[in-house]
Write a structure and sequence with these properties.
single chain, 77% helix
């Protein structure tokens, strides 16, 4: 989990999740926040939403993703494409 990005995490998620769910969720949160720092395309924002959906499958994942979405709305109020994707995410994720 020390490597940057999510490739290793996603590759071994099925094996790691039962014992290390809190650590994996923390890694996802850290990585997705770093990814969001750069202004992106709608496609990149959609990828962020896919990662948030994965995060919701973890214990406490709903609370963590809700906090991230709230933070992004405060931090990035001028990113209309991101806000649109956040609206869709919230609509479909409850």
């Amino acid at each position: 989990m020390a490597e940057p990005g999510l490739f290793g995490v996603q590759q071994y998620e099925a094996l790691l999740k039962p014992k290390f769910s809190a650590e994996l969720l923390r890694k996802y949160a850290q990585t997705v926040k770093t990814m969001a720092e750069q202004t992106g395309t709608r496609r990149q924002y959609q990828k962020l939403m896919q990662i948030l959906k994965q995060m919701q499958q973890y214990p406490d994942g709903m609370a963590v993703t809700k906090a991230i979405v709230h933070d992004w709305r405060q931090q990035y109020p001028r990113r209309s494409a991101m806000l649109d994707e956040l609206d869709k995410f919230e609509r479909f994720s409850g």
